[in-house]
Design goal:
- The chain is mostly helical and 223 residues long.
- The protein has one domain.
- The chain is built from nine helices and no strands.
- It is found in: Cell inner membrane.
- One of its GO terms (molecular function) is heme transmembrane transporter activity.
- It comes from Reinekea marinisedimentorum.
- Keywords: Cell inner membrane, Cell membrane, Cytochrome c-type biogenesis, Membrane, Transmembrane, Transmembrane helix, Transport.
């Protein structure tokens, strides 16, 4: 099992490194949208501070969606995805490794960029650790839930829009609790409860997503 995880992680990270252009698109989108927001909406620092958590969260969510369609598509096109499902190795473990690698190359970089971009939105310095913690949990939830949608649409040539429509309603709680966490600490209110709800949602997604993703892949690929 350990060798399977190591091999899968090494393979996914190597493939991700070869597709650097696809992985940089979400980061460029995140930077551009957050940078343009103060110029397009308002330059008032007080208003920017109040909206900073929501802006960063919405932009990070949309940026992460850009790379979800690629989670299984290359494996589907070269036939390795079907072999993965038919092999004796537990497909849930392989899927979980692919989800983790997607989060590692998408969600983590977005989280690391957020403190720099928060300066443009006048986010208080004491809120940065909470912002990063919420984004780490939220982007991992996005990768987990998004894997189900990516599995359902992997057989479609242009499944990106359908993927977004499928998973966006499920991501609403993540967006609400993530934004509320940041806004609470900015306003001086109690924020641990919001972060706990976000963590609970992520834990639930972690428990269910690999199984649901494998089932969706079997429907899309094997049937």
């Amino acid at each position: 099992m350990i060798k399977l995880v190591q091999h899968t992680l090494q393979r996914e990270l190597t493939l991700a490194y070869r597709r650097r252009a696809d992985l940089l698109n979400p980061l460029f989108f995140f930077v551009l949208v957050v940078s343009l927001f103060p110029m397009g909406i308002t330059t008032d620092l007080d208003k920017l501070t109040e909206m900073s958590g929501g802006v960063l969260w919405v932009c990070a969510l949309l940026a992460s969606l850009l790379s979800l369609d690629l989670m299984f598509r290359n494996d589907f096109e070269d036939g390795s995805l079907e072999q993965m499902l038919l092999s004796s190795a537990p497909p849930q473990v392989i899927v979980l490794c692919k989800i983790f690698c997607h989060w590692l190359v998408t969600g983590v970089p977005l989280t690391l960029l957020s403190p720099l971009l928060s300066i443009m939105l006048a986010l208080p310095g004491h809120a940065l650790p909470v912002l990063m913690a919420s984004l780490l949990l939220g982007t991992f939830s996005l990768s987990l839930i998004g894997s189900i949608g990516a599995a359902l649409t992997v057989g479609l040539r242009k499944g990106g829009l359908l993927l977004t429509i499928l998973i966006m309603p499920v991501l609403v709680p993540v967006l609400i609790f993530g934004t509320s966490t940041v806004q609470a600490i900015v306003l001086g209110l109690a924020w641990p409860g919001y972060l706990a709800f976000l963590g609970a949602f992520t834990a639930g997604a972690f428990a269910l997503a690999p199984w649901l993703t494998v089932a969706a892949l079997k429907v899309s690929v094997c049937d």
